[in-house]
Amino acid sequence: MITYIKGDLFQVKSGVLGHACNYQGVWGGGIALLFKQKFPEAYRHYQQICKEQGENLVGRCILISENQYQIACLFTNDYSTKKQILKHTEDSLLDLKRQIPPHTVVNLPKINAGIFNVEWELTEKVLERVDEDYNVYEL
C-alpha cells in the first residue's frame, strides 16, 4: 500500500530511505544532492560502486548504511526512454524487495518525477505492481 505523507524525508525514524539514481557516480541534483549532503559516507560508497560496476547497476538496488539509516540507491536511469526507466524502476524495486524483510517501510520521494522527467503516475503504477507494502513520502 502506498501512503502519502507530506514532510521531510530525512526526518523519518525507521525504514529505508530510497531514491532513484544513475550509475555515473554523481548525486549532483534534485533529491540525490540532498542525499549527498546528508550522507557523505554513503555518497563515497555509491561513487566507488559506480566506478567498479558502472552500467551493470541499471535495474538494481544497492543498500548503503550510514548512521541509523539504510539508503536504497535505485538505479532506474541509464539516460534512456521513459519506458526503459520504468522497466529499470520495476527491476530495482524487485531487487530491493529481495534484500529487505517483508513489510519493511520504504520511504521514497516521488522517484523519477524530477530530473528523470517521468510522470509520477507512471512510476506510481510500477510501485503498486511490485508491492503493496511501500510508504511513499512526498516532499
UniProtKB/TrEMBL annotation:
Alphabetical list of Pfam families matching this protein: Macro
Domain of life: Eukaryota
Gene3D superfamilies recorded: Leucine Aminopeptidase, subunit E, domain 1
GO BP field: peptidyl-glutamate ADP-deribosylation
EC number in record: 3.1.3.84
Residue span(s) of domain Macro: 1-139
InterPro entries: ADP-ribose_metab_enzymes (IPR050892), Macro_dom (IPR002589), Macro_dom-like (IPR043472)
Catalytic activity as recorded in UniProt: ADP-alpha-D-ribose 1''-phosphate + H2O = ADP-D-ribose + phosphate
Enzyme class: hydrolase
PROSITE patterns: MACRO
Family: Belongs to the POA1 family.
PANTHER family: ADP-RIBOSE GLYCOHYDROLASE OARD1, PROTEIN C6ORF130
Protein name, per record: ADP-ribose 1''-phosphate phosphatase
